[in-house]
Amino acid sequence: MKRWRAFSALVLCMDVGFSMSNSAPGEEPPFELAKKVIQKFVQRQVFAENKDELALVLFGTDSTKNPLDRDGQYQNITVHRHLMIPDFELLEEIENQVHPESQQADCILLIGIEALSNNTFNFTFQGIYSYLCILPYFCVLSLPFPAEDDEEGGGDSDRRGPGHPGTGKGLSREQKESLDLVKHVMLSLDEEDGLDQVYTFRDAIEQLCMFKRIERRPMAWPCQLTIGSCLSIRIVGYKAVTEERLKKMWVTVDAQSNQKEDVKRETVYCLDDDNETEVKKDDTIQGFRYGSDIVPFSKVDQDQMKYKHDGKCFAVLGFTKQNLVRRHQFMGSQVVKMFAPKDDEHAGVALSALIRALDELQMVAIVRYAYDRRSNPQVGAAFPCVKQDYECLMYVQLPFMEDLRQFTFPSLENNKKLSPSDTQLSAVDSLIDSMMLVQKDDDDADQKDIFKVHHIPNPAFQRHFQCLHHRAVNPGTPLPPMEPWLKAALERPDVISERCQAPLEEIKRKFPLIEVEKKKKLKTSAQIFGKDAEEPDAKKAKGDEEEDYNLADIAEGSVTSVGSVDPARDFRTLIKLKSLPFGEVCQQLTHRIEQLLSNKNTHYYMKSITCIQAFREQSVKVNKHSLSSFWEKLMMTWEFLKDEVEGSTVSKNEANQVT
Amino acid sequence: MAEWNAYYQNEDEDEEQEEGEQSGGDYKVTGRDSLVFLVDASKEMFIKGEDGEPSNFDMTMQVVRSVYTSKIISSHRDLVALVFYGTEQSKNPRNSFKYVYVYHDLDEPGAKRVQEVDALRGEKGARLAAETMGSGETSLGDALWCCANLYSDIKLRLSHKRLMIFTCRDEPHRGDSAKDRQARTKASDLKETGVIIDLMHLMKPGGFDVAPFFRDIVSQPEDESELGLHLEPCDKLEDLQKRVRAKEQKKRAMARLNLCLGEGINVAVGIYATAVTARKPAAIRLYRETNEPVRSKTRTFHMQTGSLLLPSEIKKAQTYGKKQIVMERDEVDSIKKFQDPGLYLIGFKPMEKLKTHHHIRPAVFLYPEEGEVKGSACLFSALLMKCSERNVFALCRCVSRRNYPPRFVALVPQREEVDEGKVQFTPPGFNVIYLPYADDLRTLDPPQCPSASQIQVDKMKEIVSKLRFKYRSEAFENPVIQQHYRNLEALALDMMAPEDTEDLIMPKVDQINHRLGPLAEEFKDLVYPAGYNPESKSVAKRKTAIVGGVAEKKPKAEVPEDELRAHVQNGTLGKLTVPVLKEACKQFGVRTTGTKKQELIDALTTRLTDTV
């Protein structure tokens, strides 16, 4: 069986000859530009960390160093570096050791490159898909060229290496000829992929600013789709969409030595007592929470008793209408595409029948999916996908009952206070009109999307590599600002920004938006210290009991007025907090007392007495005058109620005590 | 086969990594949620329905049980209490209230409590209830007061307090206006302390009239137009369960953000997770002697000096292209920072531009926060109406938390939907669909296969039609989690064996076969040639592969030392497969803790460069 390797070998050829140093006044010499292109390219390769190998061949060098150097052939060519995985060393060498030299590299040499690369490199890499990328040489005299194949930039372009300058106006016949020649050589070198992208240096640099997108080799997951026990179809699944993560993690190192070996992390276990007595790991066992109970449950028992299943499967449970599977209920973090195996035509036909049947009926298959014996089974939907050049099923995980949280939210439309008026609605309408991200092409019925998210490289990765690269090349300097192109890629397109100015102003006028003054952000200690702070907090509150107000309550900031549940406490708290004027708090309390007294019940009378006590004690502290004025009023009420108080457990005596 | 093996492990690692990092659904918890079930225990509650239907009491107990068990699974830190009123016996903290029976104090539900609720179910349960509690006079005021004490006795901070009254009597005090008044006052006291009172009224002959009494007891709905009182009483367990379920979970915003349409136009919105992958909870370590939980402390110290390292004495590093790149810890954080948290509108796109396969994470839900920015709900509502009417979605850039890199999201409008009973089953708001970046899409090489003919497709259509069903998202339980909790339950309650769980995501093969009848054979005749067996072929292949693989692997796994050294020098170790690398590690006596490819490579590289 032929082993297919997904990495490639790549030879960078750079002309360092004397023609590269020539440039029109005020322009950067092509040599410098070429060097930049090469540097950027190598950088990308270093950070991409794929297994692509790279070699660097310089020609037009003063000396000659290559294995074909015989009988005066292949002169002035230096194999600077053999095929190997690129590293920072290579980058430094390019920076410091590659200089413009004075020899002229001629056309013959160029054609010789193929032979050279074949002879030098291919024998070591038999069977490997070798891929040659040539960087420009002699014809780059009058840069920049307007590029001829100005391909739409974006995600697909970075699969291929940069080519060499395109043809354009202003080229001499001689230049054109040489260019054609180069092109011819390049195309013949690479039949499978075709060097279809031709960039000028400037374009190339722009393209190369982007670090490579993270690539992973698609891995086949062969399985059988089953419908009942009688019908099965062989399939192969590939992860098609998933949130890609960086391949490397940060390693903790000692700040002085930068050695990770110097840092050791250790986890110790201790009892939850005052001494925090440490216990050995071997003296601990595993347990699980069952509500308030903790159940000791050893690993062995757990393995024995856990849910087991037959392993890998893709079994149809039934079929349902596509619209019953809501988009927002997709779970998991991936989409798996299911194809028929490459060599099995019959499976292909059977699968195609299923895909087309589902597509025509607008239905999906609900399936049980298990990756392997060790992983948990899932329930999911297999959507039909019929494209021009292929058909497949797309599998997405669906929720289990345990995953769902059925929240209800107040209605928006049936609420008169909130519902927008017709003028408001038409303002939104024109906003939508102005901000449509699709454009109708004249010749095409299809709409052109001007903001394709799936063509944007993940900005987090780009920034990550940019900073890493900066730190590697310029140690000791602060991190650079974000690349302008990256910043721009995340913004609203200029066309839209311009178009939506007026409608946005209109929205601003039509919809008043007032930020609500926050009484005090509910920032609790629990938020600051994490939820474990909860218990100590409760403890603290207990300890403070003689103060007779709850610390937790104050921290919560919840007391804003004298409530009816514990008016006395509220009153004290408010006085302490001084959040309201004293008079107002007093008024609230008197109001509460009056309310309480109007309830003919012992409990309420008792409550009102505690209120009066609180009032007295605070008034004495703060202000004597208000007390006396209230007291008169209270006594009047008291007298008024006296008859009703009769028969209650509150004796007149008690009432007098209070005063 | 070796390669397949290597893949196998990579895949597994991937999944682990995903699991580790996917904590999208966690909230900042500032306190405990609490829920009190206040259940009427009067004689009326025990009357059985016609045709042997369960009594209202029985139904209530079933619901209480299901809430208990679901709390144990989904939010074990919530506090739940069960209180009966209208009982003959009384049992409450200070025994100051008559006819109130606190069956369960406000606490985390546990196995014992589930059992105790179970005991109250069915015939037997009714008898037990009659024995222990009996039915007596009713004073809802006292009952509510007692509940208020339950809340105030708790020393933990409570973030959400809810009380549900289960009754089938619309006039519990039979017109005693003093008692009615007391109950009203007490109810308003409770509401003032932030307790939300719900009524779960049950069917009674002659219908349940909310108006005269309970209207003043229950909490006002969140906004006036909402039909807070479901005017129809529940008569089915399923309805009751649904109603309780909808109220029982506190909806809590994962984040409150501004949706910025443009300069100075900020709509306050809350982000809610409506579907979060439930996982088996992590194990806790217990001390072997006492079974008490132990706490773990992780310390970082210097290998040589043994002194503890302060955060300032630590840096972070990564190695690329054989070069170690070191950064300060706060630099590592700052790299991830792009903008402050918030949603920023980029523009709108027609719905068909949202591709089914552009899925990387479960969606979240957006609802306006009128409390933060007044006017938010109106603009939000206008956007929602217009987007839905014009069938477009809003494309936004989203930074969900501090120091989180941006993601692009599609805000897909969702109009409110209610069922016949006016119960909302789809809330109004935007679903937030996370969109993939270029890095997240993998390049595949689809095989070229012939398409099926219309006859073959039509036959498959028959099969599809035979196996149609109506998908409901809540229909499937997770067998892994269910089994785990059954096991724990069995251990916690000293049961002989765990209760059986039904695996709902197992295909019902017999039923399917029966329904298909001859169709399966007919289809196979149409697509497969005689003698083609999709199963045997792959099975046979796999078997030989395994046999061959084992035999082959041994010699292949060893790589001559020279070659290895050459690989190390050229940095091409990555070409070798994981088993080969592992073998090489063994060969050189390199001890590795990890099984990741990169770790193996790193270990080998250090070893072999050292000895050169």
TrEMBL record, chain A:
A Pfam family the protein falls into: Ku_N
Disordered as annotated region, ranges: 150-175
InterPro entries: DNA_bd_Ku70/Ku80 (IPR006164), Ku80 (IPR024193), Ku_C (IPR005160), Ku_C_sf (IPR036494), Ku_N (IPR005161), Ku_PK_bind (IPR014893), SPOC-like_C_dom_sf (IPR016194), vWFA_dom_sf (IPR036465)
Top-rank taxon, per record: Eukaryota
Chief location: nucleus
One Gene Ontology term of the molecular function aspect: telomeric DNA binding
Protein family according to the UniProt entry: Belongs to the ku80 family.
Protein name from the UniProt record: X-ray repair cross-complementing protein 5
Gene behind the chain: xrcc5
Automatic annotation (TrEMBL), chain B:
Reaction catalyzed: ATP + H2O = ADP + phosphate + H(+)
Keywords: ATP-binding, DNA damage, DNA recombination, DNA repair, DNA-binding, Helicase, Hydrolase, Nucleotide-binding, Nucleus
Main location: nucleus
GO terms, molecular function: ATP binding; damaged DNA binding; DNA helicase activity; double-stranded DNA binding; hydrolase activity; telomeric DNA binding
One GO term (biological process): DNA recombination
InterPro entries documented for this protein: DNA_bd_Ku70/Ku80, Ku70, Ku70_bridge/pillars_dom_sf, KU70_core_dom, Ku_C, Ku_N, SAP_dom, SAP_dom_sf
Record-linked SMART domains: Ku78, SAP
Localisation: Nucleus
A Pfam family: Ku
Biased composition (Acidic residues): 10-21
Enzyme Commission number(s) from the entry: 3.6.4.12
Region (Disordered): 1-29
Active-site residues per Swiss-Prot or TrEMBL entry: 28 (schiff-base intermediate with dna)
GO CC, any one term: Ku70:Ku80 complex
Top-rank taxon, per record: Eukaryota
Matches recorded under PROSITE patterns: VWFA
VWFA domain boundaries: 34-244
CDD domains, per the entry: KU70, vWA_ku
Family: Belongs to the ku70 family.
Name of the protein described by the UniProt record: DNA helicase
Organism the protein comes from: Dicentrarchus labrax
Gene transcribed to yield this protein: xrcc6
